[in-house]
Amino acid sequence: MASVRVPYSKEDDYADEIIRQRQELAEQYLGEPFQHVNRYSFDPHVCRGNIESFIGVAQVPIGLAGPILIHGEHAQGEFLIPLATSEGTLVASYNRGMKALTMAGGVLCTVTADQMQRAPVFIFQNARDARDFADWLREHFSQVKAAAESTTRVGKLLNIEFYQANKFLYTRFNYSTGDAAGQNMVGRATYVACQWIVQNNSKVVRWFLESNFATDKKASQINSIMTRGKRVTAEATIPGDLLRQVMRTSPEALHYHFQVQSIGGFLSGVNNNGAHSANGVTAMFIATGQDVANVAESSAGILYCERTPDDALYLSITIPSLIVATYGGGTGLPTQRECLKLLGCDGPGKVNKLAEIVAAVVLAGELSLASAISSHDWVSSHEQYGRNR
């Protein structure tokens, strides 16, 4: 029996007829006609470059939370937040945190670093050659930079980091990438730079464009320390009376809970000592057309809180490797573009604004869930809002 081949058209693989052929093939396996997958509101041709063998859409519900008041360098004012999720209570929980933070005067957000990497490895006959090659690269950085930047209008090679092990020199080529997340951009730029390098240095025996040292779409300690994407901090001070009235907890209870959960995170080896930042990050990623696999890195978080002398709680979270874009990838798809417009993050020069908004949303979620756990409301909330029955 011949194997089944998914229909494909060299002329136009996003035309109605070829899409229908693929749908009919899938329906044969399904055993009944599609009722939802094949219903969409946009021209499939807009998906070119985003997906292959298109048959339809996965409709994820979008809920609205907020408004949340943000005092950023790029995001300023109140924002309504679209959250795409199928998890009950998530929107309600984030909405509760946003209400409290806004009543407390808002969230201060700051982007402190911004870079995207590709991490080639160079292999030599011995460790001494590898060590000397690092010196050679430093001396020829301007030529390497020129080669890399010849491939892009907006990408800029900022610097190169060096990490030697045995006869291998692992490098991290760090770039700024404008409004794009930039993984593909820096991949092409680094490939051209490496070609120039091997043409001008005879000591390189072998090389690979990626050594797994950029830890693309994987959580890692090096990216939590050195930054991949945006490094952004959100912070707020919430008065004790507000915590008691709105969140049904207190500065004392939240501070004590934070100490206990941090030890639990340390024992388990997590990349985040907070409660659930991946929830807010993922819901915003789906709504705004981000590469959802980047949640693996973007979920890293460093949470800190302290009680203040005036019966308040200072709460902050740093996201050390938040990978977001307002240009390229899925951000141009119709639904996702509408959500970016809702946030005021469509158009050029808006990527840091989006990063600040995401960080503020994450802080709201941390406050809400920690409050629910410390006040023993967590299970009852899920029973009321999160059960599909």
UniProtKB/TrEMBL annotation:
Pfam families: HMG-CoA_red (PF00368). One of its GO terms (biological process) is coenzyme A metabolic process. Its EC number is 1.1.1.34. GO terms for molecular function: hydroxymethylglutaryl-CoA reductase (NADPH) activity. Keywords: NADP, Oxidoreductase. Transmembrane segments: none annotated. Belongs to the HMG-CoA reductase family. This is hydroxymethylglutaryl-CoA reductase (NADPH).
